Amino acid sequence: MVNRSFEKSAILRNLGLLAFLAAAITLSLARISSHAAPDMSSDAALVDGYRHVEVASVSDATEKLTGQRTYLSHRMKPIFPTKFAGLALTVRLKKEENQDPKALDGMLAAIDQGGPNSVYVMVVDDGADIAGMGGLMGTAMQARNFSGAVIDGGVRDVAYLTKIGFPVYALGPVPSTSVGHYRFAGANLAVSCDGVTVNAGDIVAADADGVVIVPRAKAADVLATAQEMDFKEHSMYAYIEKLKSIEEAVKKFGRL
User: Fold this and answer.
1) Do residues 6 and 58 both lie within one domain?
2) pTM for this one?
3) Is 248 left (phi over 0), alpha (psi -120 to 50) or beta?
4) Structural domain boundaries, residue 160
5) Residue 148 to residue 137: CA distance in whole angstroms
6) Backbone phi, psi, residue 71, to 5°
7) What is the DSSP secondary structure assignment for residue 133, as one 8-state letter?
8) Do 78 and 202 lie in a common domain?
9) d(CA 253, CA 235)
């Protein structure tokens, strides 16, 4: 005769074991999910995300969420076709004739304090015909794994910068120097670069369409919106080709 008390006890033990295994599996899946999902609060994850979206979408997303224009004008051009993203390291030079050999020391120190994912954003006051940087500074930035540089001023040693593959946006190539004509006016401070305010740590994204600045506080939201815009736009290409109608595509996807 079967001992019903023993049988009931065995069933309860098995149910308990199954419950324990289910809880363990759920916890493991949660841990896997949390490791797989990128932490958009981290600078590295944000920068990597911005490297994979189009600057036009970033510009649209920023304007949609902030109501402000944060893209640089057509005057800011790359020395060669490029795409990069990173965190702004800002520097300003003020116009001042001088014989001080240390007048630009702070500019050099700022470079040596930057590192991976930094974007050197320099404003040279009234500097369209003054080279804010050249081959030596570009080599230092390259060695420290900067993402690139944006110069509201000129750039020189373009052939060498192109040779080493260091990306620079600037107002244009000029052979001049800032030595003896400018003084370092500060680093990691708010600057007006081509009319757009840039703070240290803001996201700087650049590609063939130009350069856009994203305020750090809005960076995660802007990235998510830009990714959505990219997805819609890329989906529209085939739809337009199939229907031969941009009106129908815009009506379906709500993106232009």
Assistant:
1) no
2) 0.81
3) alpha
4) 44-216
5) 11
6) -95, 150
7) E
8) yes
9) 9
